[in-house]
Amino acid sequence: MKVTNVYLCGLGVFQPPVTDAGQAARRGEYSPAAYLENRLTGVCIAGDVSPPEMAVRAARQALSRAALDPARIDLVLHASIHFQGPEMWLPGPYIQREIVGTPAPAFEIRLGCNGVFAALEIAAGHLAVAAAARTVLVTTAENLGSPLIDRWNSAPGFILGDAGSALLLDRDEGFARLRAVGSVAVPEVESLYRGGEPLYPPLVRQGRTIDMRERAEYFRDNVMSLTDAAELRTRARLDLIERTLDEADRKLVDMTRLICGNSAAYMVQQDLLEPLGIAMERTTWQFGRGIGHTGASDQLLSLNHLLVTGQLAAGDHLLLFGGAPATMSCAVLEILDVPAWARV
Hints:
Keywords: Acyltransferase, Transferase. By secondary structure, this protein is an alpha/beta fold. It folds into 2 domains: about 5-175, 3-Layer(aba) Sandwich (Peroxisomal Thiolase, Chain A, domain 1); about 180-335, 3-Layer(aba) Sandwich (Peroxisomal Thiolase, Chain A, domain 1). The chain contains 11 helices and 11 strands. The chain has helices at about 20-25, 30-40, 50-65, 90-100, 115-130, 205, 210-220, 225-245, 265-275, 285-290, 300-310; strands spanning about 5-15, 20, 40-45, 75-80, 105-110, 135-140, 165-170, 175-185, 255-260, 315-325, 325-335. A 9-stranded mixed β-sheet has the order 5-4-6-7-1-8-11-10-9, sandwiched between helices. Strands 2-3 form a two-stranded antiparallel ribbon. β10 and β11 form a beta hairpin.
């Protein structure tokens, strides 16, 4: 999707303290073999702070940094992947009440780790066609300290972290411009994260926990080889990146940095670096390896890190990529100015 007149005017993060992965391996919480193979060094752990509370804190920071009146917000989009609060309750209206408090609607997005990209697509359409639209608030947050999940070992190639992030999108001005955003489905691998588990009843009623390795093994034994699945996803990934860059009127060589999800070094190497022919140093992996995979917050946390550490300048272009098994997403940003809050 080629985008015009959509700007990033605010960015906020809630990044909990980091627990050292090496120490966790020595305590027996994290597989020593995985620690050596994945090269991940730490993970953010939020304790008892709920995801909606993290989202609210990140949104408040975004508003403060942007010096924006929350009454200007006319749409709230909240992305999530896991437990957000009481069953049969929605986090979006809570975030809306805490931050906005006007009749502006709040929608929840469930697209796994790509939730923020889906929010970008929805926000871009909203700002383009809604006559009175001015600003959209995008939030996402996760606390993966659930008894259903072993954050250290449930997902091969990942340590599952906690964090919240928020983005303010405006139709008039901002420190960065969204040039293009898009997603693509790979339906053949939908069951990779489902495995052989029934759609009902929920795991908690079965007395089981989430084991992504077990699900992948079922997929490999009953659907297709993991090699074939990887080839399908690689073709879709490269086609999506090429299309998004074309819609942004830019080339891969124009991208100052590649912002990707936080995963093991070998996954980034196989999925992105080798197919694209770029070096690890152009990515945000070095930062991401120290905070864990935080659901849909990975890319926004990395963008914040690049800004506050002085690694970006006006005129830089960023390629953002996110990939859940059956859906992949991509966006191109242009930095127009380094905001004052990042220069302190």
